[in-house]
Every structure is written in C-alpha cells, then in structure tokens.
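User: Fold this, then the next.

Assistant: Folding the first:
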Amino acid sequence: MGAVTERGQLEQILALQRQNLAPRLPPEVVQSQGFVTAEHDLDTLEQMHDLAPSIVAKANDQVVGYALTMVVEAKRYVPILTPMFGSFETLQWRGRRLTAIPFYVMGQVCVAPAYRGQGVFDALYRGHAASYADRFELLVTEIATRNTRSLRAHERVGFQPLHCYRDSVDEWLIVAWDWTLPRR
C-alpha cells in the first residue's frame, strides 16, 4: 500500500478502471460486485496526482486496487463531478459548513475482482488516513445508490451520509469520513 510513484501505475489504474466501468459489466456483476462510473484519461490522472498522489495496492508490481485522491482544486479536471462539488456549498458536517472544513474527495476507489474480500478496500482507506490526516480533517465522496456493495464497504470504513441527490446519470449519496472518529 502506498502512494502512486510512477506513470506506469497511473496507466494500470486506467486499465483496472476500464474493466470495472458499469456499462462494460453484465448487470449481475454490477449488482453483486459494484462498479465505477467516471472514466479518466492519463492527463487527468497526472494532473490530479501532481496536486496529491493517489493510493494504490499492488501485488507483484501490478496495481490491484486504487483510491484516487482528488483535492478540491482538481474539480476542473473531471466535469462529470460538477454537480457533486456544487452540492458541497450547501452541506454541513457536525454543524460546520463543509466548505469551511479542510477536506478532499475520494475521486474513485476500485479493487480488482481477484482481490475483493481480502481487506484491500479498507487498507486503501487506511493508506489515505496515513497520508492525508495531517492535511485534511475530512474525506468526502459520492456513491451511486444502486452500488450497494460500495455503500456497504464505505459504511464499514466509517463513512456517514451527508446528502442524497439525483443528476442526469444516477442517484448519489454523498458521504463523509472523519478518521478521528472511532469506527462503528
């Protein structure tokens, strides 16, 4: 587990992402295993990485899981996330305006099928806490409400719901994780 250190890892992230995009998966896999929605390109990942490196899990030098770091300044690189970022202006966390709290966004998290159920997902988030807890108070992300596997996994890590909304793509649940709070 560690931060992205080379361009080849970003290319491996893109390959794993392509394999897990909802439109490319059979409906039964979408339902049981989850999926990713946004599709990035190498330039976008490089720009995001330059601002704050993502965390990856590797096996034999192959990326088998990733958790994309997306600081607020990177929102211009992924236009599909504009509605999510817009909603942040109206949200509160524990009585404070979300935008007044140092936070960043989990741009996407994915684990290769052969490595699911082995703690990789949780380890990716522990890697984020270890890398970014001194810089941020909160980690925020959104999950398609039909992605039940992802919803359960994020709840297990300690994410709590903030807001639900619908856009032209799906219905989304915005969740936040304060890693200073004990896990449930």
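Now the next one, as you asked:
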Amino acid sequence: MANTFKLKTKANVDASLVTVYTVPSSTTTVIIGLTLANVKGASITADAQIVTASSSGENADDVYVVKDIPLPA
C-alpha cells in the first residue's frame, strides 16, 4: 500500500483548542513530527492532544503528546 505524506499547519492559534487534522474514515494516520512555536512577547504553555472518536476498545482514550510544555518568548 502506498503512503501519502501530508503537511498540516495552523496559524494564529490562541488560547482555545484547535483541530489541525481530522482523520478520514477507514484511514490510519501516523504522526511523524510536531512543532510548536511561540510568537508572542511573553512565555506561554501549550498542550498537544490526540483526540479519538472511538468510545470503546484500545483506541478509546484521548492522549496528550505534550501537556503544559513551556514555550519561551
């Protein structure tokens, strides 16, 4: 099976949760890399979370890739 690599970005994210990518049905997605950047004038903290639509089974848990990571100014 062929692999399709995608680049997903989101600019100007503020203090709320933002969906960057939604996996299509009947598709498996692997995150190879993730970059977070702070362009504000002050230090902030950030979270990156994988949210699942499944309500049961081994894939039913939402997980944080990073939680409260400090991003300096």
